[in-house]
Amino acid sequence: MDQPAINPTIDKVNKGLKRRYRAERRFRIFGATAILSALCFLFLLFFSIVSSGYKAFQKTFIQIDVFFDPAEFTNENLATANFPGLIKASLRSMFPEVTSRSDKKDLYYLVSPGASFQLINLVKNNTSLIGQTKQIWVPANDDVDMLLKGNIDRSRPEDERRVNDNQLTWLDKLSRDGKIKKTFNTTFFKSGDSREPELAGIWGATCGSFYTLLITLSLSFPIGIAAAVYLEEFAPKNRWTDIIEVNINNLAAVPSIVYGLLGLAVFINFFGMPRSTPVVGGLVLTLITLPVIIIASRASLKSVPPSIREAALGIGASKMQTVNHHVLPLALPGMLTGTIIGMARALGETAPLLMVGMVAFIVDIPHGITDPATVLPVQIYLWSDSPERAFVEKTSAAIMVLLVFLFLMNGAAVFLRKRFEIKW
Q: Using CA atoms, how far apart are residues 67 and 70, in angstroms rounded to an integer?
């Protein structure tokens, strides 16, 4: 019996299908590999940041017995008393065998210079301490803190570490006596910047970021929404509006440092506004976020069906009433999402703020938009350039805090989009 003839067309189609299926499988493998690689690199990034920074949320304290000698408080101004001398006297009483000048210097090095400010506040709040001896927990020096956190290898030769053998002996004695403890580092969240790593905190930079973003939001949101509504609902379609739209799209891709140069030339050099203030930083960040907000808002307005506008106009509403009472409320969730994303970008900007002087070393906490201030990304930049080992973990800890803020802002944008999104 004769075999049925093979259709060459079917055979050719089957071969092509097999080739396409193989290509599709390869594409899926390549895509999955790319996603897996990206996740691995992201995990390594987060792991390196967390592993370097989680120890910054702990701080080492040393307990000393301070005698508030009345002879030191003869002046009406209590702050003029020799508080560092009181701390040194307390350390000498704890280690009476330390007699040489060099050993005393090493002994005094165990305690942070900020301990004297702690004593000042204690005496100001309770003057009855004068003439008494009180046990006080004072912050340890940053090198001592690094040693007790395991960041300094005590087994290395003495000339290769910042804590010598005598200091190790004294610290071991303090540890045996229960005079060393590690607690949650509230200073990191409550204080401003400092030259001493153990005294440095992010509260000043956090306040600066808040005031800067407040200026940015106050200007970029109303201006961006108004521009988007005009371009999408009222502007005539001609050459000029096309040029404006192209420029807005191009401005969204301009490097941020260009905006910093613009702010330096216009706001500071031309208008004479003060450097390193949230008001100038907010104006610069407004220029950066405006294109993002306008583009997102226009996309949200386009998503509103034309039938909504036609129905409103059909019952006698004016163009302005149609936009205000029908189109804008329906598009507002998408506008808010775009605004939050733009603000999240502004929170992470560093380069434009460096150009307007917000890289200055600011110790005081800003209390307004015209006070000298810095922001969290710039604070991270400053700490990363510091030579002390303790600033390395503070840099990573500040990055963790900044990432938490960014995650919260982007999470809020996702929530608003899912919660209020209307599908037509």
A: 9
pLDDT band (50, 70, 90) for residue 6: low
Largest CA distance in the chain: 126
Look-up: residue for tokens 């600011």? Answer: 362
Sheet hosting strand 133-139, strand order edge to edge: 133-139, 58-67, 180-184
CB–CB of 278/366 below 8 Å? yes
Helix ranges (H only) for 165-264 are 165-176, 187-190, 203-229, 239-251, 256-263
Q: Helix (H, G, I), strand (E, B), or coil: what is residue 160? A: helix
CB 67 within 8 A of CB 89: yes
> pLDDT band at residue 1, thresholds of 50, 70 and 90?
very low
CB contact at 8 A, 223 and 282: no
Reported pTM? 0.87
Structural domains of the chain, ranges and CATH numbers in brackets: 55-185 (no CATH), 203-420 (1.10.3720.10)
**What's the average model confidence in pLDDT over 274-284?**
91
Per-residue burial over 290-327, b = 16 or more CB atoms within 10 Å of its CB, e = otherwise: bbbbbbbbbebbeebeeeebeebeeeebeeeebbeebb
* pLDDT exceeds cutoff 80 at 3: no
- Both tokens of 343, joined, read 């603000």
Question: Two tokens at 366?
Answer: 């800003």
d(C-alpha 193, C-alpha 197), whole Å: 9
Q: Which helix (H) or strand (E) holds 67?
A: strand 58-67
DSSP three-state, residue 66: strand
Q: What count of other Cβ atoms lies within 10 Å of the Cβ of residue 89?
A: 17
Tokens representing 83?
A: 């508080």
The residue type found at 76 is E
Which of the residue ranges 6-20, 75-89, 148-162, 171-185 would you say has the lowest mean pLDDT?
6-20
Q: Can you tell me which residue has the tokens 């930079």? A: 205
Say which DSSP state 294 is in: H
Q: Rounded to whole angstroms, how far apart are CA atoms 398 and 376?
A: 7
Please name the helix (run of DSSP H) or strand (run of DSSP E) that holds residue 138, with its range, or none. Answer: strand 133-139
Pull the structure tokens for residue 355. Answer: 């150009």
